[in-house]
Amino acid sequence: MFQKWLKRKLGLADGKFPDAAWLIHLAYIRLIGFTFAAIGWILCLTAMGVVEWRVWYLMPGTSTEKIRIGIWGVCFMEPTPDGDSRKQCLEFLDEHLSLPNEIFLAQDLMSLICIFVLWKLFHKGRPKNVLLIFFWVGGTLNLLSGFTILIPLLWKMYSVLVNDSIHFPNYFQLPVLPYEQNAGFAIYVGISASGFQLTSSILILSEKCWFSECKRNN
What's the predicted TM-score (pTM) here? Predict the structure, then answer.
């Protein structure tokens, strides 16, 4: 009974059934591909929420010597009257038109990818041929997700390399250019997320060839 059900799901003809070792191998590859996609989603979500895409260092001796810039806002340590300091975070809003387009693009793309990958992980379709649909659609969408994540990341990395400026709203009272700037933690997390998504797509799409060969041989 189980073999009949599995043959129907695999799309194999009656009387033709792949050996158990191949099915176990296929199950492991599918599980690894799913796991990598899940890790990629977690890392993408982490990168989106971390306020450290670009790190600015100001001239020594200024009241604020280090600024962390994310895609949703900017954070820095602000001195207090008692000589101590406290963390101050300011949010980026849609009406802040002076901000570079890369910030709003990163907001849209990272949010879209996180929602898209989450939907893909938990969406339960009922296609006629489950595995072929998984190979083609799942692998292709993972590949698309991996490359899409790279767009805001590479743009941010380029801005750091050319020491690009940011015209913050006037009430932020922050400089346009830093003394020095580096790529933040979020960029490396995002690149790792892209790597997991791309690896997941390679695993899934490579198995499609094995599956097609098995159908021909059986």
Answer: 0.78
Measured in degrees and rounded to the nearest 5, phi and psi for residue 192 equal -65, -40
For the chain, the distance separating the N- and C-terminal CA atoms, rounded to the nearest angstrom, is 19
Sign of the alpha-carbon dihedral angle for 192, 195, 201, 204: negative
pLDDT tens digits, one per residue of 115-166:
877 777 776 544 444 455 555 666 777 788 888 899 999 999 999 999 899 9
Backbone φ, ψ for residue 125 (5° rounding): -90, 170
What amino acid is encoded at 85 in this protein? S
Q: Domain locations in the chain?
A: 47-217
3-state secondary structure of 89: strand
CATH class of segment(s) 47-217: mainly alpha
Residues of the chain under the 50 pLDDT cut: 2-3, 9, 11-17, 125-130
| Separation of alpha carbons 208 and 137, rounded Å | 11
Q: Helices 185-217 and 20-49: crossing angle, nearest 10°?
A: 160
Residue 17's DSSP bridge partners are none
Q: What angle do CA 181, 183, 189 make, to 5 degrees?
A: 160
